[in-house]
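Quick one, tokens below. Sequence please?
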């Protein structure tokens, strides 16, 4: 979405002000819905986001003869509750000009529900400096960015002036609002916007967060605007350039039909694009009580014909696979058994198997230097690639096996069954150590764990994957999305579902490697403590498997972990 000018001043972050500053009264609301965001990482499962939000407390008008700090305090409370009245009361704290310029939806700064919260410090020039710890931010397009533990507090400067009645009013301020995590949980909900993979066969989500008060309308506006910059080159949309809603509201009738009217556009898009957009809108509104979708342009019917059926959030049909000694094995009906049609691997130091989603391609690492293809007919393993120390592989739905050197020179590698190699530039990995890599099952994204020098600056990244018409990967996004900032150290990553990663690592309160759920654009959640050294995920939290130091394979059962097998290593699901 277009950038807007920010009135007022945003001051460089620095540590919190002295104890003399005035603490902002907390706007606390009971209840907890959505993916938990309050305070530090907690242990437990992600809560469903489909529950209705708790009604917000209505904001209060400015207090007569309020001093600057008191006025700013009241404004922050009114801004946090402003979704209830479209920020009408919050604007009463501003001068007329500041009210015209202020965009409350440009940014939400989320601060921890526990702790001191924002602090206010009046300045000699009459301004007020607000210092706030940041848990996350959400931009005007609904993109959620988690803050790393220990991040510096942010300072916002509010300038004030007296009006004609002699009352203090805010004359300069940054766009956006401040909101504690508890308030955010009931005020916003996550919504995946759906776009198409380049080959038009799969839906690819772009996770956003929108106000619960008008979620369908905000989601449709964002969908028409297009995917996030990091994802843009890897997906397609049927929305014509410049498309927008004719009104701010998407209406949903009593019979569950969502009616979306687009503003008139110079040229109606091709029929195939209209059909694709119909599919995108239907899937994006799928989490709401919507039974059908009707799109019009300037009141005239859109007239879709054959709406494509795209695959979404595909689940593997078997697994996990793993190694038991030197034998490639699979879990079937609760028992681990050898995989048929695999040549003996003894003496090859097999490790880190990877299986394609359709199970027609099976590979393993031999030591760290060789990538081996395991023929389906039980023939001798075939060397596909050699290197100094290769990253554990991942097989995408197009049959390409992804790997690369752990000590990255800014490249990733993909190889097919014939041994053809695609070299993919990833300059943001240069000088880093790549620990783990997994391509999403839609084939449009790749998740990685990498570390900087001396194993510090560990990052969990998700980058787009651009392909040619044959499915060969040609490009990895130059600006990956950084997620899981709350994870301090990480060793392995797997896809839990279309918008969630399972990351094995440590966090501020969990010093041993355990499983964290990391949305691709959302708050991190730590599952029940279990120290692990390998992780695999099918689809959903109950399809997460972990191997511990003793070689015990465990899976989720409710909120606990259940032993499945002994003496295994390197579990992985197809895809």
């Amino acid at each position: 979405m277009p950038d807007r000018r920010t009135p007022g001043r945003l001051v460089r972050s620095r540590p919190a002000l002295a104890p003399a500053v005035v603490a902002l009264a907390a706007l606390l609301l009971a209840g907890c819905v959505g993916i938990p965001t309050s305070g530090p990482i907690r242990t437990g499962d992600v809560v469903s986001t489909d529950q209705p939000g708790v009604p917000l407390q209505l904001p209060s008008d400015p207090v007569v003869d309020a001093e600057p700090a008191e006025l700013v305090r009241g404004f922050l409370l009114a801004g946090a509750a402003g979704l209830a009245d479209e920020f009408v009361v919050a604007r009463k704290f501003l001068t007329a000009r500041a009210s015209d310029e202020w965009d409350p939806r440009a940014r939400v700064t989320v601060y921890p529900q526990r702790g001191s919260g924002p602090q206010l410090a009046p300045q000699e020039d009459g301004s007020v400096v607000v210092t706030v710890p940041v848990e996350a931010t959400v931009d005007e397009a609904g993109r959620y960015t988690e803050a790393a533990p220990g991040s510096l507090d942010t300072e916002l400067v509010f300038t004030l002036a007296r009006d004609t009645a002699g009352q203090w009013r805010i004359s300069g301020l940054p766009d956006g609002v401040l909101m504690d995590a508890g308030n955010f949980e009931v005020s916003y909900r996550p919504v995946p916007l759906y776009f198409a993979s380049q080959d038009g066969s799969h839906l690819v989500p772009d996770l956003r967060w929108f106000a619960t008060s008008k979620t369908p309308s905000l989601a449709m506006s964002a969908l028409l605007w297009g995917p996030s910059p990091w994802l843009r080159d890897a997906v397609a949309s049927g929305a014509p350039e410049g498309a927008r809603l004719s009104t701010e509201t998407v209406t949903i009738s009593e019979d569950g039909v969502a009616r979306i009217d687009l503003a008139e556009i110079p040229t109606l898009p091709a029929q195939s694009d209209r059909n694709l957009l119909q599919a995108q809108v239907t899937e994006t509104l799928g989490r709401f009580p919507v039974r059908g979708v009707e799109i019009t342009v300037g009141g005239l019917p859109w007239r879709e014909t054959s709406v494509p059926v795209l695959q979404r959030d595909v689940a593997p049909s078997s697994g996990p696979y793993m190694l038991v000694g030197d034998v490639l094995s699979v879990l079937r009906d609760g028992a681990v058994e050898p995989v048929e049609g695999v040549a003996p691997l003894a003496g090859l130091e097999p490790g880190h198997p990877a299986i394609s989603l359709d199970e027609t391609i099976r590979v393993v690492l031999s030591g760290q230097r060789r990538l081996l293809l395991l023929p389906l007919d039980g023939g001798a393993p075939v060397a596909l690639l050699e290197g100094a120390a290769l990253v554990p592989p991942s097989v995408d739905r197009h049959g390409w096996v992804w790997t690369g050197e752990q000590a990255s020179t800014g490249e990733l590698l993909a190889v097919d069954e014939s041994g053809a190699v695609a070299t993919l530039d990833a300059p943001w990995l240069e000088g880093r150590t790549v620990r783990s890599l997994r391509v999403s099952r839609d084939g449009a994204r790749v998740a990685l764990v990498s570390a900087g020098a001396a194993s510090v600056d560990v990052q969990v990244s998700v980058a787009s994957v651009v392909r040619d018409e044959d499915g060969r990967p040609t490009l990895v996004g130059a600006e990956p999305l950084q997620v899981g900032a709350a994870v301090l150290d990480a060793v392995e990553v797997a896809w839990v579902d279309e918008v969630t990663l399972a990351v094995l690592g440590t966090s501020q309160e969990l010093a041993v490697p355990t499983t964290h759920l990391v949305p691709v654009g959302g708050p991190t959640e730590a599952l029940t403590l279990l120290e692990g050294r390998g992780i695999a995920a099918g689809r959903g939290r109950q399809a997460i498997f972990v191997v511990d130091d003793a070689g015990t394979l465990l899976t989720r059962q409710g909120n606990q972990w259940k032993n499945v097998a002994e003496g295994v290593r390197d579990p992985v699901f197809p895809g």
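The helical segments are 68-80, 88-91, 96-101, 181-187, 215-225, 271-284. The CA atoms of residues 134 and 151 lie 7 Å apart.
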